[in-house]
What we know:
- 45% of the residues lie in helices and 14% in strands.
- The protein has helices at residues 16-19, 22-46, 55-63, 82-93, 97-102, 116-128, 256-292, 304-332, 338-362, 374-384, 391-402; strands at residues 133-136, 152-156, 159-170, 177-184, 191-197, 207-211, 222-233, 294-295, 298-299.
- By secondary structure, it is of the alpha+beta class.
Amino acid sequence: MSNKPGIQEFDAPGLGSLWHTEERAALLNAVRKLSYGAVRTAAEELDHQEAEIPDELIGKLADLGLFGIMIAKEYGGLGLGVFEYCLASEELARSWMSVGSIIARGQGLGTQVKDQETHNKLMQRSAEGDWIGAIALSEPQAGSDLASVETEAVREGKNWILTGEKKWCGNALSADFIQVLARTKGEDDELVALLVRKERGVFPKGVTGTSIDKIGYHGIISWNLTFDHVVVSADDELTSFYAPAENEEPHTSGGAFHAVQHGLNIARVQTAARAVGLARAAVEDTTVYLQTRHQFGHPIGDFQALRFELATMAAEVEQARAFYRQVAHDLDAGESVERETGMVKLLASEMAVRVTNQAMQLHGGNGYSRDYSVERYWRDARLTTIFEGTSEIQRRTISNRILPRSPLE
């Protein structure tokens, strides 16, 4: 029997007066209802099958506008910011991290083409959940080191010819498009972002894929992709790797690396929010378990050693939540927060591993079984220290901004 605490069995986190608005409260309640209902039901049924997020659930996310949280209202989006995006991501990840991740494949991704009319139509589709993508950044020899990307884009007339290999491309087969970071050759050796259009469920001509056998993060299948002289129209060269905020100028292809870095800042604070969701799930499930599991004639929650462990877990979750909300707020305010996004991603992801690991310990042997959800929380939390830049990369980013290196002699 699965450990599935009901909504009323614990105090779910609110916004607090500092961050409260009626719009945020309404969004929080709507997403929480979906998370505790359809999302958790899907996770309980499908995660162990390593199945993808079902289309029906994708439709429910779209109905709430979650693929367009950061898309302007003129395109049919919610017109909100990184704060609300992270708020929703925590709620969804609380029940299944992959669902907290799939909404990142909207948000205006794959829409920054040069033709304004086409851009507008793609933005509308993105907001509706009808333009869901995949991102191809990492390569066999270029994981966190995106400056070393070797996938080649050669210009031939009105087309780009794309050749190379990408790794860890989540949702590639089910996507409507794959957004590829490549390097031009010749006199102009620079990074370029290209839009590879496709149909859901099939790879386009010249693209082959091999799925990666992962221990967790099920619901979204990750792929190794090979691009063999894939033809991409020059019209599908993206002016930015992400959808710029309303007060920003789009980045040109020559600024693709800068654009990727900005997108990663958003992705890292969202990863922190997802990590908080996972850790919070572990705390909530453990709270119920400590009340229902009896040993020596008492609920094990009566034993002080276990109570203190739970208290520490809960405190760490609250600390990380407060930090990611502050960084998300600063991002929306246009602050330069590359150091802070590294910090919050580092601390929240490492916290999630500790908390979910301790939750398994407090569940005893049951925590190591698939009858309880804590093993899934731990498997998913472990990935948060790796993707969107490893913990080591975050430490490098942070330390370089605190303590610049001396120039080489």
